[in-house]
């Protein structure tokens, strides 16, 4: 039954791709916030006439089977990365951070989530195996004549399938298994490029540089363990014994990076990297009437928006109460995305919502402050609209994302550990609201971010179409990652030249000794 | 008199800049082919309403005093880099290469031209000193409120003046004193990035990598000698004893690179690099009637264009005769830019010209082959129009430029050394004319080059205006070059971590020995 369904879908889209003049794109998306931004790209590709096919698993949670703008191929799986897995992890992290020991985000990144990550990659591997064991599905994918594979390489299954189908590969990317994407491909000196998880900026003290190197080494170890446990095995099984997953993952034609150099510190990059940070941002559209009325009722004081991202619908009750109490003391109106129980001490100025049009609210003239967890999407939206931030990071890259705003004078950061102590929350919110420098700095960043020759989304679309027109982008891609490390770092050449130097030195020494003996010794004898 | 003149000019342009809405740009150009491409940028800036002031010396040879699109400030000098200096150098190089020993371009780059280079930088230093010693001129420059300094950092005087005036600095650049510009700023592994002067590609054998490292080391030594002999002294005299020229030269806000990644091999780059290769190329305009008639008379065979660049107006007579004889045997028509005596054996199919509209000829549908010396401008024009090349490199980067076309199957290279032996010239020309792969490869490169989201010139203009709007581009610029080398390469961190490792190892060893003594020794005693 599944086979017939798959055949039907594939036949349909093959026909469709022949009819349309657009490209034929195979997509391997990721769930959660990663889907939120992939979705923006896919809608834009669809509106330009491209035909989109998504491979999803049968327990997919964000990626729906039916859509008006993509076809889907569903691979049946036993288990999937469920919402529970993430929310459990978040609860653990919150408990962890509020415990006796105030652990840093470094510790979280390095140790706290390792087990969860390995488990997640295993679940993804099962999905990949189910797909690669289905010969009929693979044959149909081959026959569909896709023009490229678009994937988020945070999980590795799309990379392996692109190689299996011999198709150009495009990344919608920030992370590559266990490291930042540009760090993996471009030479990146650890002395001025902060590793995510350290909370460092691009100007580091000696001890910060020590931490940077250590976190890098831990990250590389994690990467090695995760890849060898999962994707390397898949590669050897389905692509042949000599295939190397790391090599494959670095061989993508185009890397659409979800950051820009207003958010990210300047650093080396490669010609096949396109920085599309903020591609999801658009000028604000009008708000629904009830929200507009609420916002307007704030008068001259303006509005505060609070959202802790896709996963954190409810914080622990005591923390929620602390936040509600602080909000009640403010003259501003507050819109708070909160799914848990209504705090008893909620002020009249605070509106709880399940969902809200975040981009349109951030772009509203009355918006004064964004209280956020620091996910890349939200931080880039704050940058685009020039709204100052109070950040409450939980895990992953959130602390480091917020650090980039704080370092430029646009944000304050609160840790879960100290949020409910000494009125810290209220103090931070009032500080950012009342000191105009935060807003001025974010407005300056916003001007820099918006001052680009092309909109980031248009640029990303151009380069995806470029890859389709030219069947890849080999001329923009180095293959230096295929060299053995001693060649890459010229260690062999260095040893060779040192050897030659020694040889020359020895020869000169011997010659001089001979010369001395033939010229001076006879004299001595004569004497 | 000179002072009054300068004051007048500066006053005029200060007024002018107040009236116009464009920016106010101070330019330090370079003579020869470097002026040819700077001129393209300046005309484009002028047409966008920007006010341009050029600092030239009184013996300037390419940069005229009067122009419809720029103002000029003339600094009186005793001597200048004259045409004779370059043509003498070329004659020497040709004699050199045709001598008994066939020397490679590596030798030319490394040793042959060192003396000329140092002398040239000294002449530039004299120009700079004359400018910095003129207090009145400096005061007027300060009062002119320029928005940025645009210079070609091949010579260093513009860099020092930008610092003196505290202005944002933009480079129209390929070379930085003695090295390729992106090599100087971006981390560039010598294992896959060919050093100009080696004739290497991005795929090197072991011995080619050895050569690459050696030429790099020689280049760095040359750079050090040239900078310390000239610009470092100027810096210390006019900017203060602690100023460092190398640091200054790497601190530019924007680097407009005169190459692109169709010509150049993929390599690491930096966020403040804009690749504008081919910015001077435009679709062909109609030819003057006499040229059009000549071109059309070629019928189905088409036309060959030969030009050896701005400096080489005449090759040695025997070589010229060899070339003329070869041309006479071809069915094509030939347009030959040649200023010397008319070769006696010139065929009826060959037209000698003093000057010709090179871009319009290369873009003509009847153009079949470009015989060129391999300067960057000409090579980028051949790429743009998709015309295959027979290259006769003389010095500098010319061999390496042509190598990039040859490596992609679009060119043949002849050395001066072997040009007039065994009919080599005729063979190479016929090979490229008759094998369609050369043209197909150049056409493919042309398609890649032209497939950009923006025209390179528009992109360059956008980023120059960006620097003016935001008073620089600090957020795109790392300051990593200010770190001491042991910090930049994390040598100090490595040693520290190794020390900690040794300490831990020693402690563990001592503890285990103590444990052994307290646990095992008593047993031995008991026994």
* Overall spatial form of chain A: globular
- Label the CATH architecture of the largest domain in chain A: 3-Layer(aba) Sandwich
Count of the domains of chain A: 3
Q: Overall pLDDT of chain A, averaged?
A: 89
Keywords (chains A, B): Glycosyltransferase, Membrane, Signal, Transferase, Transmembrane, Transmembrane helix
GO molecular function (chains A, B): glucuronosyltransferase activity
Signal peptide (chains A, B): 1-22
Pfam family, one (chains A, B): UDPGT
What does this 3D model show about the protein?
Two copies of one chain form a homodimer. The first copy, chain A, has 527 residues and is α/β, with parallel strands linked by helices. Chain A has three domains: 2-279 and 455-482, Glycogen Phosphorylase B (Rossmann fold, 3-Layer(aba) Sandwich), CATH 3.40.50; 289-446, Rossmann fold (3-Layer(aba) Sandwich), CATH 3.40.50; 490-526. The first copy, chain A, is 50% helix and 11% strand. Chain A has 21 helices and 13 strands. The first copy, chain A, has a seven-stranded parallel beta sheet with strand order 3-2-1-4-5-6-7, with helices on both faces. Chain A has a six-stranded parallel beta sheet with strand order 10-9-8-11-12-13, sandwiched between helices. In chain A, β4 (148-151), α7 (157-165) and β5 form a beta-alpha-beta unit. In chain A, α5 packs parallel to α9 and α15 (376-385) packs across α18. Chain A is globular and about 110 Å long. The termini of chain A are far apart. Chains A, B: Its EC number is 2.4.1.17. Chains A, B: It is found in: Membrane. Chains A, B: The chain crosses the membrane at residues 493-516. Chains A, B: It catalyses: glucuronate acceptor + UDP-alpha-D-glucuronate = acceptor beta-D-glucuronoside + UDP + H(+). Chains A, B: It comes from Sphaeramia orbicularis.
């Amino acid at each position: 039954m599944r086979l017939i369904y798959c055949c039907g879908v594939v036949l349909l889209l093959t026909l469709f791709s022949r009819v349309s003049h657009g490209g034929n794109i195979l997509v391997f998306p990721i769930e959660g916030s990663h889907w939120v931004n992939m979705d923006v790209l896919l809608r834009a590709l669809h509106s330009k006439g491209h035909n989109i096919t998504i491979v999803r698993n049968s327990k997919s949670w964000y990626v729906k089977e039916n859509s008006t703008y993509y076809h889907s191929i569903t691979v049946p799986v036993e288990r999937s990365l469920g919402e529970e897995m993430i929310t459990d992890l978040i609860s653990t992290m919150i408990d962890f951070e509020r415990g006796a020991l105030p652990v840093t985000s470094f510790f979280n990144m390095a140790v706290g989530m390792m087990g969860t990550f390995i488990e997640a990659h295993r679940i993804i591997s099962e999905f990949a195996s189910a797909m690669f064991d289905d010969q009929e599905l693979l044959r149909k994918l081959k026959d569909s004549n896709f023009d490229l594979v678009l994937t988020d390489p945070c999980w590795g299954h799309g990379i392996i399938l692109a190689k299996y189908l011999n198709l150009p590969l495009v990344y919608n990317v920030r992370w590559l298994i266990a490291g930042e994407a540009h760090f993996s491909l471009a030479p990146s000196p650890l002395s001025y490029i902060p590793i995510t998880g350290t909370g460092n900026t691009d100007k580091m003290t000696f001890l910060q540089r020590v931490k940077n190197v250590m976190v890098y080494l831990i990250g590389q170890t994690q990467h090695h363990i995760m890849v060898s446990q999962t994707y390397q095995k898949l590669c050897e099984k389905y692509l042949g014994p000599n295939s190397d997953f790391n090599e494959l993952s670095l061989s993508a034609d185009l890397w659409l990076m979800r950051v820009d150099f207003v958010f990210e510190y300047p650093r080396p990059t490669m010609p096949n990297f396109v920085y599309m940070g903020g591609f999801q941002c658009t000028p604000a559209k009008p708000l629904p009437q009830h929200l507009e009325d609420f916002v307007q009722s704030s008068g001259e004081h303006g509005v505060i928006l609070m959202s802790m991202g896709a996963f954190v619908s409810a914080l622990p009750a005591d923390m929620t109460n602390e936040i509600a109490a602080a909000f009640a003391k403010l003259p501003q109106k507050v819109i708070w995305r909160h799914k848990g129980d209504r705090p008893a001490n909620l002020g009249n100025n605070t509106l709880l919502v399940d969902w809200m049009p975040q981009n349109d609210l951030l772009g509203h003239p009355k918006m004064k402050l964004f209280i956020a967890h620091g996910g890349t999407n939200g931080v880039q939206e704050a940058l685009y609209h020039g709204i100052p931030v109070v950040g409450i990071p939980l895990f992953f890259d959130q602390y480091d994302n917020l650090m980039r705003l704080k370092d430029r004078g646009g944000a304050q950061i609160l840790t879960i550990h100290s949020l409910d102590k000494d009125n810290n929350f209220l103090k931070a919110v009032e500080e950012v609201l009342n000191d105009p420098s935060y807003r001025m700095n974010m407005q300056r960043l916003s001007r820099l971010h918006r001052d680009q020759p092309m909109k980031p989304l248009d640029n990303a679309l151009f380069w995806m179409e470029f890859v389709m027109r030219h069947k890849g982008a080999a001329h923009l891609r180095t293959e230096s990652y295929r060299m053995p490390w001693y060649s890459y770092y010229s260690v062999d050449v260095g040893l060779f030249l040192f050897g030659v130097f020694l040889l020359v030195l020895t020869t000169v020494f011997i010659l001089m000794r001979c010369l001395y003996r033939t010229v001076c010794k006879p004299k001595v004898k004569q004497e």
